Structures are given as C-alpha cells and as structure tokens.
Amino acid sequence: MRIWLDQVREEPFDWEETQDVPVEPLGRPELLSLGPVASRGQVRFVDPGYLLRARLSYEQTLACNRCLKPFTERSTPDVELLLEIGAPAAGAGEHELHDRDLGTLYLDDEVLETEPILVEQLQLNIPMKPLCRPDCQGLCPTCGADRNLERCACEERSVDTRWAALAPLRDRLSRNE
Fold first, then answer.
1. Same structural domain for residues 110 and 152?
2. Total domain count for the chain?
3. 148 and 116 in one domain?
4. Each residue of 52-64: pLDDT tens digit?
C-alpha cells in the first residue's frame, strides 16, 4: 500500500487490509508457510515527522529446530515507527546509534510504501531457533529416531579427543572404586 504523507498532516490516516505474502522472498528456510497477514494501523503527523502505529496478525508454520516437525503459531506483533523525511544528518566517520535511531525510518519523499515495513516485521518475528515445544527432545544424531516419540537404543557417548589422553587415568580410577 502507498500512503501520501502530505495528506496526513491535516488528519490521521487509518487503514486495515489483509494480504498474502509469499514465503520465498523472506529468505528463511525454517518458515514453511505463512497465512494471510492482516494489518491495521494509523499514521499521524507529529512534528517533525509522522508516527506509524500498526498491529499485524497472522499464522506462520515453522519447522522445529530440533525434531524438524512442522508446527503453527499465531503472531500479533505491534509496530511503532517514527517516519522522517530526508536522510539523517551524516557525521564524519562512525557514530553511536541511540534508542531513538532504532525506531526511526527515513524516507526520501512524502510517500510511504508499507510493503517493505511489513516484510521486515515478518522477518523479525520469525524465531531464530523455532521449537515445537520448549522440552522438544529432537532427533537422535545416530539413528535419526524422534526422541519425542520413542527411545532409541543408540549409545550416546561422544568422545572429546582433547580428553582422550586422560581416559586411561579415568579407567584406572573407576576400577579402584
């Protein structure tokens, strides 16, 4: 959606829309599917810029990071951005970012495209390591069995080669006990 901000100076602009967003451009392999994204928001003039407040509502199907099974979760993130026209004042070299900078979007002109903001918010709300449940046991690294459904007979003994030189000492101590 395109919002002409010069028309927002007099009175706030409210919107409500639902759209389908393809998964592929989001570039997150753990995201399997995305339901229709409903957005509702308002843009109002606040000197020196504009304030955008919105709420998204959608369902996303993710692959569990441990057991690889798909699971669906509902997400309703809130979005709040200060919109300013023109580039920020450029200083020489590097400069420290402040909290205010993280919530500010700089626009080239008084036309706001909402789709890039929507895509960014969708990406931000995909968990880094999605889990189907907090106590997911995952898959056995040896036989591939789902540990949530069955116990496998694989021996879970991984030897750290850095400690291999101490193995004879450990064996001798365990025989003396």
1. no
2. 2
3. no
4. 999 999 999 999 9
Q: Identify whether 131 is part of a domain.
A: no
Domain match, 95 and 56 both: yes
Of 128, 135, 126, which is closest to residue 59 (Cα–Cα)? 126
Asked, for residue 129, whether it belongs to a domain, the answer is no
Model's pTM, two decimal places? Answer: 0.76
Quick check: helix, strand or coil at residue 121? helix
One-letter identity of residue 140: C
Q: What 3-state DSSP class applies to 163?
A: helix
First to last CA, the chain: 74
Residue 106 · residue 88 · CB < 8 Å: yes
Q: What are phi and psi of 29, to 5 degrees?
A: -65, -25
Q: Which of 14, 7, 16, 70 is nearest to 39 (CA)?
A: 16
Average pLDDT over all residues of the chain? 89
Domain membership flag for residue 132: no
Model pLDDT for residues 92-112, shown as the tens digit of each residue: 667 777 777 778 888 999 999
Residue 9 CA to residue 127 CA, distance in Å, equals: 37
Residues 73, 109, single domain; the answer is yes
Structural domain harbouring 158: 137-177
